[in-house]
Every structure is written in C-alpha cells, then in structure tokens.
Amino acid sequence: MNTTLPHSGNPWFRYASPASFYPLAGTLVPWFAVAAAILAIAGLYIGFFVAPTDWQQGEAYRIIFIHVPAAWMAMFTYLVMAFWCALSLAFNTRLSAMMAQALAPTGAMFAFVSLWTGAFWGRPTWGTYWVWDARLTSTLILLFLYLGFIALRASIDDPRRADRAAALLALVGAINVPIIYFSVRWWNTLHQGSTISMTAAPKMAQTMLVAMLLVTLAAWAYTIAVALYRVRSIIVEREALSGWVGELGKGDGAAPTVEGASR
To answer: With contact defined as beta carbons under 8 Å apart, do 74 and 100 qualify?
Structure first.
C-alpha cells in the first residue's frame, strides 16, 4: 500500500501522523518487551543473588534494586509526558497528546511502586513505614499529579479539549520533579542522599551498581514497550472514523493507507 506523506523526505514529519506511527509502534513493541525481560532478569539476579550484603543495612537494602529504578522512572516519565504535552500545545499535534496519555498510567505505576517499596525499606531502616519527609511527600504529590492527569482527561468528553486541559496540568506539575530530586539537599530529611551522582564516584560496590543500572534499563525498555502498545489502542480509538483504521481489519499486515487519515 502507498504510505507516502507530504514532506516524507523528513522521517520525523512522516511519523508525526498517527497512521504512519501505528505500524512503526507495532514493530518496536516486541523488541523493547524482550529487552525489558532480559535486562530485568539479569539485573534482579545480580542484585538479589550476586551483590554482597550491605554492612550497615543488611539484606533489607536489596529492595533498592526495585525502589531506585522505579523512583527514577516515575520522575523521568513525568518529564517525558510533560514534553509531549508541550509539543501538543505548541504545534496542536494529535499524536503528541496521545503519547502523553499513553505514558501517564505507567508513570503512575512507577510512582506507586516507588512509594510502596520505599515504605518496606523504611520500616527496618527508620522504624516506620511512612514519615512526612520532603522526598516522600513530593513523590506522593507526583502520584497524585499522574492520577489527576488521568482523571482530568477522562472527565472531558471532547478529546481536543481534554488534551489541552491535561497538558496544562502536566506542565504546571513538572515543577514538582526538581523538587523531588533536590529535596534531600534543600531540606533536612530522613531520606538518604543520592548514591549515584554525575559528579562523583558511585558510593556502592560495582556489582550493586551494575544490578541497579540493568534494572533501570529494563524499566526504560518496559516503559517504551507499554507506552507504544497503549498508544496504538489510543490511536485506533481516536481515529476510529478514519478510513485507514477500517483497513486494519483486513489482515494483510501492511501499513495502512495514509491518504484516508484525518488531519
């Protein structure tokens, strides 16, 4: 089938169309899913069975191999979501809004996992599951921002109005991400400082660092795979009246014709 778009000499313009991006996303999903599984298995094996016991925290520290990557991904995913929202507002692009919508549930899941694993780490370390610490409180606010983004979108029937309202919320809420990151420097908190820094040597054994980085890469790959899978469903739902969507059911596996797509 013909997949030629105007300005198709630039692939970025070409894949800005939901009709062109849909088959590309379907191709990429299994690759990132397999990478996520392999990296997660390797990272968790090293973290739980190879890495040495921490001299101060004992075996309880091993939860950081889930907690820290989840916390990083919760913040990073929100910034990526806010980036897509900014593109959506600036250029009125449908696919950007769809990508932001697809990322929100995964970001919320990572924020929840970060808080949940942090509570189980805090019990043997601090003697309590929860304190109103600056890092914990700002991460809880991040979870509420994700849930608010999802709820706001669902409460507005008109998709374009929902895109704009949710995008504004996401952009305003982005200020919370640097607050989370710098909270342990700005305030006297119970939460320990960064173990890994761009300006200093890691404060952990090499096997611990390798395990944490592998699980972090697994979380990235998982986020990409799930977001691409979810955005395909969003595209089909929101482009249901477009001619190319009807061709998907013909089962020829080829990319849909772009000329019938709505602009």
So the answer is: no
200 located within any domain: yes
Report the C-alpha dihedral over residues 63, 45, 201, 125, rounded to 10 degrees. Answer: 20
Question: pTM of the prediction?
Answer: 0.83
Q: Provide the domain count of the chain.
A: 1
Return d(Cα 256, Cα 247) in angstroms, integer: 7
Average pLDDT of the segment spanning 49-65: 81
Give Cα 233 to chain centroid, integer Å: 17
Query: Under a CB-based contact definition with an 8 Å cutoff, are residues 150 and 158 in contact?
Result: no
Residues 6+ apart with CB under 8 A from 102: 227, 228, 230, 231, 234
Residue 49 DSSP label? I
With a pLDDT cut of 90, the percent of the chain lying above it is 54
**How far is CA 52 from each of CA 209, 217, 236, rounded to the nearest angstrom?**
11, 21, 48
Would residue 129 count as lying in a domain? Answer: yes
Domain hosting 188: range is 22-250
How does DSSP classify residue 132? -
Instruction: Say if 7 falls within a structural domain.
Output: no
In three-state secondary structure terms, 16 is coil
What is the distance between the terminal CA atoms of the chain, rounded to a whole angstrom?
Answer: 19
3-state SS, residue 7 = coil
> 6: pLDDT confidence band, cut at 50, 70 and 90?
very low
Residue 99 has pLDDT above 60, yes or no: yes
